[in-house]
Amino acid sequence: MNWILKLLPEDKRALLELAIRITASLDTPEERKDVAEYGLEMLKDGKVTVGEWAKFGSRLGILRGPH
């Protein structure tokens, strides 16, 4: 995969690396597909509400409440 990343322009490579890190906590192809589909739907109108962003982060397992 690293050789593929090296073929991409630097800005696209950075975005793909970010996406990979964000989704690293997802265990199954189904989870990754679910998050990707939700994210694409969420961004469809070009705007994201706080609730949508929170739901997206929750699906990714990256949001935590106060400790």
Q: How is the topology of this model organized?
A:
Blueprint: H1 2-7, H2 10-22, H3 29-42, H4 50-60
Provide a concise account of the structure shown:
By secondary structure, this protein is mainly alpha-helical. The protein has helices at residues 2-7, 10-22, 29-42, 50-60.
Radius of gyration: 14 Å
The description of the largest β-sheet is: none
| SS elements, strand count | 0
Question: Which consecutive residue ranges, at least 5 long each, have pLDDT under 50?
Answer: none
Model description:
- The protein is mainly α and 67 residues long.
- Helix content is 66%, strand content 0%.
- It is built from four helices and no strands.
- It is globular, with a radius of gyration of 14 Å.
- The model has no long low-confidence stretch (mean pLDDT 87).
